[in-house]
Design goal:
It is built from three helices and 21 strands. With 370 residues, it is mainly β. It has a 16-stranded antiparallel β-barrel with strand order 1-2-3-4-5-6-7-9-10-13-14-15-18-19-20-21. A two-stranded antiparallel ribbon has the order 8-11. The chain has a two-stranded antiparallel ribbon with strand order 16-17.
Amino acid sequence: MYYKWRGFLLAFLFPIIVSANTDGPVKLGGRLFIDGGLFTKNSYSAHAKAEITDVRLTGKITLPDEWYTKIDVGFAGNKVSLKDAFVQKKWGNNNFRIGYMLGMCCIEQSASTNDYVFMTGANAAETFYLGRRVGVSYTFSQNKYYCSAGLFCGDGAEYDDKVLPGYNATLRGVFRPLNEAGKLLHLGVGGLFRRPDREKEQKDRLVTFSSNGVTGLSVPSVLDIEINNVKHTFQWNLEALYLSRRFFLQGEYLNMNVQRAQAACYRPWGAYIQGGFLIKGNFFNYDEWDALPLTPKESKSLLLSGRINVTNLNDGPVKGGMQQDITVGLNYYMNKFLILKLNGSVVWTKDMEEVKRSFGVLQARLQVRF
């Protein structure tokens, strides 16, 4: 099945590659992330690394009457993986989408990696991240208000007769009391309900919470826990974002409830706050349709930023560990195609069942987007 859809995607993208142009309805896009990292010596078994952490090819077609389709394929790690494959229709302040895509839940779990301020999203959001699924969504957006709802089948794009698919739903609302040129105040709430997939030979459903800390490089997991006997999970979150011409401040709180068949409810949580100042440049960008921050508009912008994150997977007898991290970043937005990033992070973990760690990492990225 893997090779069938891979062949289909490549066949679909071939005419796009051949006919792609910047003015027509058919366009070719993509991205390339080249990362390098240097880790301090400690019990965390990661050392100096350099990798291509993301490479994608994207086909986009704008059709008459506000119809639009997108297929995004990833090739990192010598693997072909489907990222986005959907069709959408806009009318007025409404947008309907169907296909393989993200369900809008919170800022960091919904934003494109192309627009991340740091090398990765906040660890709290990435640890609870569900990923893309097949389904439908509806979005309403105007100057002051935004809401989005989605209904999805299963936890991925491929199934066989050994998997009993689950289902999940997302809901997100945003109020923008201040939304004018150069200033934005965004306040939101979101939720994600999920009934996980189940292997037919297993008697229960499983969920896993794991992360690589603050890097996209292939390193050992910092947090990694599997919960069994799951009936369903529910994540709720609060979000806030302030943008001015040269300053931004963003924060979220995420709370996860895992209802279990033969055990007490498991409630991990996480939170982060991040902000930044444009040393050079004077305009942050924002996608009003998806209620998400974007990279600065002006070429040669220079951004100094910082983030504090806490991810807590400990709850009662369940010891999944806690991660705390601080990151300082410097980004140079050379133009709309090239971004240079430099991140310095310190990570602490505690209450781990196996090992306690603290380590630092210095990372750099050349990011190409088109």
